[in-house]
Q: What sequence folds into this?
């Protein structure tokens, strides 16, 4: 009985110590939304970002998507998946061996935002263009995606 009590006490101390060492992030807990409207080839689209911040203030998930019209049907690029048809275009740029679909490139971007805990790593060339030099595997123009995430993160501060 004494061994069990000692083991439980030891386990309790370890658990308490572990809780005290949780890193604190830079944001308020919650789910935050940002959106950007834009025109492309005469059509109006909306990019949306959803950022989830946990109780430690850490970004745990980022979801970015953009509306899109294909064959006169309103949808999103993520819903289209492989049917969006970006793989060949990205392969022809020579920067992604074999190419990558839009949703695959967005996953790389979303993961980078989580890893970096924000978008401070993004370098803007001017008010409209940005460099994603710090991220390989992405050839898409990401201005509206980063701007939507920025709007979400502003709410989380």
A:
């Amino acid at each position: 009985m004494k061994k069990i009590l000692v083991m439980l006490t030891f386990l309790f101390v370890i658990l308490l110590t572990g809780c005290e060492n949780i890193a604190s992030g830079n944001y308020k807990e919650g789910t935050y939304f940002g959106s950007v409207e834009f025109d492309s080839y005469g059509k109006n689209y909306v990019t949306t970002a959803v950022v989830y911040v946990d109780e430690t203030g850490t970004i745990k998930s980022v979801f970015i998507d953009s509306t899109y019209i294909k064959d006169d049907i309103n949808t999103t690029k993520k819903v289209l998946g492989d049917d969006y048809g970006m793989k060949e275009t990205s392969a022809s740029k020579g920067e992604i061996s074999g190419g990558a679909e839009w949703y695959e490139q967005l996953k790389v971007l979303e993961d980078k935002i989580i890893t970096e805990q924000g978008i401070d790593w993004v370098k803007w060339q001017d008010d409209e263009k940005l460099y994603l030099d710090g991220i390989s595997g992405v050839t898409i123009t990401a201005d509206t995606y980063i701007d939507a995430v920025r709007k979400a993160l502003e709410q989380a501060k």
Observations:
- The beta strands are 30-40, 43-53, 59-70, 73-76, 123-124, 130-131.
- The chain has one domain: 2-156.
